[in-house]
């Protein structure tokens, strides 16, 4: 368990550092993103979808507010185009994270985990718990990128990864985009309720998962 936590911590620190830098510079603030979408909408609706997809794809490299983007996608594009754009963007980010880590992650794996035993432990642990981690990864702004990279690093079968990834992002994007489309400046309640509901569901599910996992570990160690 320590091996996989070490890997996930390093990846999380990397993504967190990009989030802090962008937060301090204000380059990808919510206000900036909203102004870009408004400008794109004044030119062409297709450009709005392209901006949403691009920003969600870039979430793999620089942490961006995914839920806010999905809500704004629905607000500017409507429920269908908004959810489709959000799904495509998150799908591309997951695919890139998986394949980049699959082909180039061995160096990081070998550098952080010096022994074959540690590497084997990390792989077996993620094989056992990886599906749940991917499904519940939306509980944290950084966990989705980490889980996609971990799936590639540990060579999770692609069919399994894409199944769990789609199960994670499709309902999430549809709910967020629909709530965004139902919201207005005068009545932002649908977006607020969706944000609270999604965050609450994933955080509660993640807490239950962590609690159940820790109990199993304690039982096995006794």
Write the layout of secondary structure elements.
Blueprint: H1 2-25, H2 30-43, H3 45-58, H4 66-77, H5 79-104, H6 106-112, H7 116-135, H8 143-153, H9 158-181, H10 189-221
Helix pairs in contact: 1-7, 1-8, 2-3, 2-4, 3-4, 3-5, 4-5, 4-9, 5-8, 5-9, 7-8, 7-9, 9-10
Could you describe the 3D structure shown?
With about 220 residues, this protein is mainly α. The chain has one domain. The chain contains 10 helices and no strands. Residues about 215-220 have low confidence and may be disordered. It comes from Pseudoalteromonas luteoviolacea DSM 6061. This is TVP38/TMEM64 family membrane protein. InterPro entries: TMEM64 (IPR015414), VTT_dom (IPR032816). Belongs to the TVP38/TMEM64 family. Keywords: Cell membrane, Membrane, Transmembrane, Transmembrane helix.
């Amino acid at each position: 368990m320590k091996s996989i936590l070490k890997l996930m911590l390093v990846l999380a620190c990397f993504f967190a550092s990009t989030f802090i830098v962008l937060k301090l510079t204000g380059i990808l603030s919510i206000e900036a993103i909203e102004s870009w979408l408004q400008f794109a909408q004044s030119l062409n609706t297709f450009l709005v979808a392209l901006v949403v997809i691009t920003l969600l794809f870039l979430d793999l490299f620089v942490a961006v507010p995914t839920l806010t983007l999905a809500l704004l996608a629905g607000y500017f594009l409507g429920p269908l185009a908004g959810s489709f754009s959000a799904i495509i963007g998150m799908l591309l980010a997951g695919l890139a994270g998986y394949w980049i880590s699959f082909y180039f992650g061995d160096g990081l794996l070998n550098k952080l985990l010096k022994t074959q035993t540690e590497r084997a432990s990390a792989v077996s642990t993620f094989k056992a718990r990886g599906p749940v981690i991917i499904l519940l990864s939306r509980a944290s702004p950084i966990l989705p990128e980490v889980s996609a990279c971990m799936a590639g690093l540990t060579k999770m079968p692609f069919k399994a990864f894409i199944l769990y990834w789609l199960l994670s992002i499709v309902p999430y994007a549809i709910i967020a985009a629909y709530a965004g489309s139902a919201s207005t400046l005068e009545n932002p309640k649908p977006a607020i309720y969706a944000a609270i509901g999604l965050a609450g569901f994933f955080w509660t599910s993640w807490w239950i998962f962590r609690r159940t996992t820790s109990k199993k570990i304690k039982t096995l160690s006794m």
